[in-house]
What does this fold into?
Amino acid sequence: MSNPSPWPALDGDAAALLVITRHRAASEGRESFLESARRAVAVLSEQAGFLDASIAVATDEAGLYVIETHWIGVGAYRRALSSFDVKMTAIPLLSTAVDESSAFEIVHRRTPGTETSAHSGLAADAGEVGLGSASGPDVRSVTS
It folds into this structure.
């Protein structure tokens, strides 16, 4: 059966990426926020690996917005963030997001007529190993 979704089917080995950022805009700044969000999404949409994006407003909380983007994988998203145009247009807006996790690997997707799954690319010890954890007391310093 063909995939009726505009997104590629998950291939089992690589999870697609969902990025969700929430933003609060004061009543006097909402039009400005929406214009900035539209510009950011436009620049992101020009990047390799971009699939789609949405800007949504909460129906029960004035001034709360969500920007949602989908990417073919975490690598595509990270490369997009390093683009000069993204750094100049999207990063300033994304830096105003509510401080919370925003990137999620899509490990299961269902559409009418299809169901696909993929494996997460997260390392098994991703929640335990942090910056500097790879070295230990018996690892000698590199000398030149």
Notes: Helices lie at 30-45, 74-81, 84-94. The chain has three helices and six strands. Strands lie at 16-24, 50-57, 64-71, 103-106, 108-111, 114-117.
